[in-house]
Design goal:
Elements lengths: L6 H17 L2 H9 L5 H14 L17 H13 L7 H14 L2 H13 L4 E4 L15 E5 L2 E9 L9 E7 L10 E7 L5 E7 L5 E14 L3 E2 L5 H14 L4 H15 L3 E2 L2 E2 L4 H31 L8 H23 L27 H7 L10 H12 L3
Parallel strand pairs: 1-4
Antiparallel strand pairs: 2-3, 3-7, 4-5, 5-8, 6-7, 9-10
Length: 399
């Protein structure tokens, strides 16, 4: 199998790379390079720049705003976006609710939601996890009781990322409490302005407010906002998770972090030279780059296989990408943490006066520790790494 890019694919890569250099606003580019969190306005601004170029939803079908790119072109686009680095379009919109609506929504739902999702006029959050129903998602207890043309929803959702920004939520609810665990679940779209919704912030170990807990008390959701059939929501959720997992390796993100670590290491004094000259550091960088190349080749093989079979189903081998990709993302943040040293922490500089750890421009280090802490979650989202091992054991190894 020849995994090299064709002449046409190399030309496409150059086109994408040039667009990112020209179109990405400098203020957003600086935030991405420094690992700073983007504001809601930053992401909306960049999404609309991509939308104007026709690149906001590259994997969607062409009639609904897709590009018609091949799987390899989509891979190239995402890698160049990560390497720029530029923000990814909101995953809840582009990779999750959008494909679900395209596959299972009514024509009326598609016409209403898809154009607004693509432009980020509608910002969706995901109402799946609950207390006691995270990795075992089918144990969810949020209840939706039907009354005429509405569902009355009561319950609690947890780890609802960006709910404080969102104006819509896709959520799983139990519509038949007497059914078996994976049955009796329905998939609803909820307007976040509806009465009865309370969103409370959760500040995570990185010191940021990214996720939330959400309380639902007699929230009325029209039946017309249900995706697909009643009590079939588990099937739609599995489809969504397959879509999420297929792009979760983020090889480009890890490549960008390793590149950044090499650049910054030249600013860190170490013996007679810099950290970039240290043999041990260079060995760790090389080992990480080798693993990234192996993961990249694995992803390209899976892309080639999916292009030839075109079954439309998530390949269970994509769990390899999720499992190893999350581990390498975490390893790359650990490398950056080594480069920054104590400058990555919010410490009392007066107390440390005279310490021998000469780093020029300590501002670049301020986001490294928080991003390292934040990266702990990537081995959990999209199905924990333990679940990925189970999938590989059953579906690939036949154990």
């Amino acid at each position: 199998m020849d995994l090299r890019l064709t002449v046409e694919e190399l030309a496409f890569r150059d086109e994408v790379r040039a667009f990112f250099r020209q179109a990405l606003p400098p203020a957003i580019a600086r935030k991405c390079s420094n690992g700073q969190r983007l504001s809601r306005e930053d992401l909306v601004c960049w999404t609309r720049i991509l939308h104007a170029r026709g690149w906001a939803t590259p994997a969607w079908p062409v009639p609904w705003g897709g590009t018609g790119w091949s799987a390899v072109q989509q891979y190239i686009f995402k890698e160049e976006l990560h390497l720029a680095p530029a923000p990814e379009p909101l995953s809840f919109n582009v990779n999750m609710i959008g494909p679900v609506l395209i596959a299972f929504g009514t024509e009326a739902q598609k016409r209403e939601f898809l154009p607004r999702i693509a432009r980020l006029d509608y910002w969706f959050c995901q109402g799946f996890s609950e207390p006691g129903a995270g990795s075992d998602l089918a144990a969810l207890r949020t209840e939706a009781r039907r009354e005429g043309d509405h569902y009355i929803v009561n319950g609690q959702k947890l780890w609802t990322s960006t709910a404080h920004h969102a104006n819509w939520c896709f959520l799983l609810v139990r519509t038949d409490p007497t059914a078996k665990k994976q049955e009796g679940i329905s998939y609803l779209l909820m307007d976040m302005a509806s009465p009865g919704i309370t969103v409370r912030p959760i500040v995570t170990i990185d010191g940021h407010h990214e996720t939330n807990e959400m309380f639902l008390e007699n929230v009325r959701i029209p039946v017309s906002r249900r995706i697909g059939e009643e009590n079939r929501g588990w099937s739609y959720a599995k489809f969504l998770l397959g879509q999420e997992r297929s792009g979760i390796a983020r090889v480009g993100v890890s490549k960008m972090r390793v590149r950044r670590a090499r650049e910054l290491a030249r600013q860190v004094a170490c013996g007679p030279g810099t950290l970039a000259d240290d043999a041990g550091f260079r060995e760790r960088v090389a080992a990480l780059e080798v693993e990234l190349k192996a993961l990249e080749m694995t992803q390209m093989r899976l892309i080639a296989e999916s292009s030839s079979t075109a079954s439309g189903k998530a390949d269970p081998k994509s769990s390899i990408l999720k499992l190893k990709g999350s581990e390498l993302q975490q390893a790359a943040t650990e490398l950056l943490l080594e480069v920054a040293g104590y400058a990555a922490m919010e410490l009392d500089r007066e107390f440390l006066r005279g310490a021998e750890h000469a780093i020029s421009g300590e501002d670049w280090a301020a986001c490294i520790a928080p991003n390292h802490y934040w990266a702990r979650h990537v081995s959990i989202v999209g199905g924990s790494n333990e679940i990925q091992r189970n999938i590989l054991a059953k579906s690939v190894l036949g154990m």
